[in-house]
Amino acid sequence: MFLPLLTALSVLGSSYAQISLVNVTIDKTSFVGVYNSTLGVDTFRGISYGTAERFKRTTAPLYNGNVTVVNATAPGVACPQVTVSSSTLTTTNYGEYGFGEDCTLLDIYRPHNTTRTSKLPVMVWIYGGGLTQGASFSYPGSGIVAVSSKMELPVITVIINYRLALWGFLGGQEAEDNGALNLGLYDQRDAMTWVQNYISYFGGDKDKVTLFGQSSGSMSIAYHFLTEDTNLFRAAILESGVSTSVPVLNASVNQPVYDALVNLAGCNNSSDTFSCLQTADESVLADAANSIASAPNSYSARPWAAAIDGEIIPDSPAVLTAQGKIANKPFIVGDVQDEGTVFVQPQALNTTDDYITWLGLDYVGRNAPFLSNETTLATLERLYPDVEALGSPYGTGNVSFFGEQFKRGASTYGDIHFHAPRRNWLEVAASKGMTSWCYEFAQTLPSVPEWTGVFHASDVFFVFLELPSTSPDFALAEQTVAYWLSFATHLTPNLAAALVGAPLWSQYGSLKTSLYMSSNETKLVVDNFRKEQIDFIRSVADQFLVHISLVQSIKGEFAGRSLSSLIRVHYTLNQRRLKHQIRWPNLLTDFTSSISFLVHIISAPFALVVEIFAINRTVSI
Fold first, then answer.
1. Which helix (H) or strand (E) is 105 found in, with range?
2. Active site residue 456
3. 282 annotated active-site
4. How many beta carbons lie within 10 A of that of residue 592, not counting itself?
5. Which member of 174, 176, 239, 339 is catalytic?
6. Fewer CB under 10 Å: which end of the chain, C or N?
7. 156-160 and 204-214 strand pairing
8. Which of 224, 417, 419, 456 is catalytic?
């Protein structure tokens, strides 16, 4: 329907696009952007939503009446991040724009001729990348805005930067003591606050803000559903990730990462290691971040992670979700079909022993600690049999692609970290009477290796119309955008039916209705695939998450105690497990199994010292 427009998208940056300047003024501060007449889109890029000093929260900009001109014609820098392949942060990683710590920036895309009285709905994109990588300029919002105008559902799109890796998600006691936890999440919230305060000057309606994001961006959005300060948006679209997709623990879990960073940065002899890191050269921190990221299992499964801080993440997301403490806002949530394929090392899983070891000890076991016991592993081995035709990428028959257990591992991983948490999130929301829609994205990208399937993040190419305009899959991209635009403007995706002939999309509700999306067919289905497998994962995940919440709830009772006194924690734990009907090992009489148990319910072996015994950081084993 919109192929002429989509063809125009392909020449956005070419000499054929007609470019001129446009400006918006906020109290004598003039933001000069670019108008692309081919697309009919105004773009303002690299706008600061706050000044970010290292390991501190941003300071909001002041538009105090002084005459100022802000050049918003080109992207700003990306935030410093993990590059792994390069020992330092270089501009070659992100083209000419480069990196910089003053990176709390956002880009705005709006239909041309938008005025302050237009009051258009606003879509705010939060990128993924494992909280370690990403940049706003990697997600051009012009395509969405151009299509929104053609569909007569005009929106403004805002793409935000936020701090990453050690700059945005530093862990450890020192970070907690200095208020430096979850700075990347606070950046996101500060960007949303900026939108509330100033998007009206660009023609947006602050009361019609929809968040959308993918992977860790989607998980971040889910975290924002758990805070008390949820008046910054009215709805959300979560693509591949909810708040329980990965464990969120206390800051002390990543104390070894902080200590390693101190050593690598040469701050180990400082009396104030936190201040030393604050003043360390940026290249030194970059090298340290890459050293840690290149060997994550030496320190932590996820060295840079969100943590419970009592504010933006007030408690364990799993506990809050189980208690139904999710903001009552409409949302769309879904996954791609083959979430796990790009997370499994292709050649690593050749035998059943490889599969079990990987589940229990390697990446999955460290990120999903509830897997690390023999009964759970044996059940997973049964539920995910050694049958290649049942593995992921699904629908590829008996082809193994790599190691014989690759498809088995990919299927297990995708269910543990994406499909099971998403289904749980939806069912909790449905039990609260919340308005929600679910989807399964099942379309492969053209010209990608078959082993990837419908891989994690492949749907982003459809959402941002980053496909060749001649592709037969463009109709699905158009359909996806129509659903998203309809939801952002009217809190229902179903205007897409009239716009592009898309099927009507029923809410999830008690019937667990989901939209299966592919180029061949988009249809309503019941969200019950691999029900036995996902039900089991949810059941053991729930058990683990109660364990971890109990352990963390009595942390204060352990501080300063000797190892022998800590062994006697069995009384407290057993009193509490009676209340919750959890089977705990006898911590006094079965010391070996108790140690093993405690190790397993934390995210990695080092966490035994960090999270249980070394609460005062003086005890060792």
1. strand 105-111
2. yes
3. no
4. 8
5. 339
6. C
7. unpaired
8. 456
Residue 504: its pLDDT value, please? 98
Q: Per-residue pLDDT tens for 400-422?
A: 899 899 999 999 999 999 999 99
Residue 514: per-residue pLDDT: 99
DSSP letter for each residue of 144-185: HHHHHHHTT---EEEEE----HHHH---SHHHHHTT-TTHHH
Report helix, strand or coil for 43: strand
CATH superfamily, domain at 3-322:
Alpha/Beta hydrolase fold, catalytic domain (3.40.50.1820)
| DSSP string computed for 68-83 | EEEE-SS--PBPP---
Q: Specify the DSSP element, H or E, that contains 36.
A: strand 29-36
User: Which token pair is 405?
Assistant: 């257990």
In angstroms, rounded to a whole number, what is the distance separating the alpha carbons of residues 560 and 563?
10
17-61 tens-digit pLDDT: 678 999 999 999 999 999 999 999 999 999 999 999 999 999 999
Q: What is the mean pLDDT of residues 185-192?
A: 98
Catalytic residue among 215, 372, 514, 519: 215
Local structure of 424: helix, strand or coil: helix
Phi, psi angles (nearest 5°) of residue 69: -115, 125
Average pLDDT, the chain: 83
Helix (H, G, I), strand (E, B) or coil at 316: coil
Mean pLDDT of 165-184: 98
Domain with CATH 3.40.50.1820 in the chain: 3-322, 331-532
What CATH class is the domain 331-532? alpha beta
Parallel/antiparallel/unpaired status of strands 513-517 and 436-441: parallel
CA 412/CA 533 separation, integer angstroms: 9
Would you call 440 a catalytic residue per the annotation? no
pLDDT band at 99 (very low <50, low <70, confident <90, very high): confident
